[in-house]
Amino acid sequence: MDLKQLLIAPLLRPQVVHRLPGRLRVHLPALRRLPDSHLPLLEVIEGVLTVPVEILSARACSTTGNVLLIYNVEAVDEEELVGYVHGISRMLANHWKSLAALPPGELVARKGQWIIAVKAAIRYRLELDENIKVSV
Predict the structure, then answer these.
(1) pLDDT digits 0-9 by tens, 42-74
(2) 3 or 32, which is more confident?
(3) Which side of the chain, N or C, has fewer Cβ within a 10 Å radius?
(4) How far apart are CA 10 and CA 90, in angstroms?
(5) What is the largest CA-CA distance in the chain?
(6) Model pTM greater than 0.70?
(7) Which of 67, 57, 69, 61 lies closest to 34, judged by CA?
(8) How far apart are CA 42 and CA 53, in angstroms?
(9) Distance between terminal CA atoms of the chain?
(10) CA nearest to 91, candidates 121, 57, 125, 61
């Protein structure tokens, strides 16, 4: 792990703020550092987070840095959800330079491309690990 990854790792790691069966609120510190010009990225994040059918809805807030997930409690557990959110935040961080270069209006326009990419990544992981419960 290089120095840059070491420094941004805490910003990407989701922390559970509140939990109820079927409802999970996680804090992502990086969301609070989102420039106002790139607030449309929240819509992209919400769309990507709801790719697995077990996640019924996602609501991201840059003011608090929290993401609220409503999920099917019988199909997925909290640990898997937190792992998924962490994976998505790492993916966004890895592509931050290209995302930051886009005009804000184009971020939302490309949401469909991100969703397709996440679906493909989940399918690939499903083939590698049959124990994973997240499906598309």
Answers:
(1) 888 888 888 888 899 999 998 999 999 999 999
(2) 32
(3) N
(4) 11
(5) 40
(6) yes
(7) 61
(8) 19
(9) 31
(10) 121
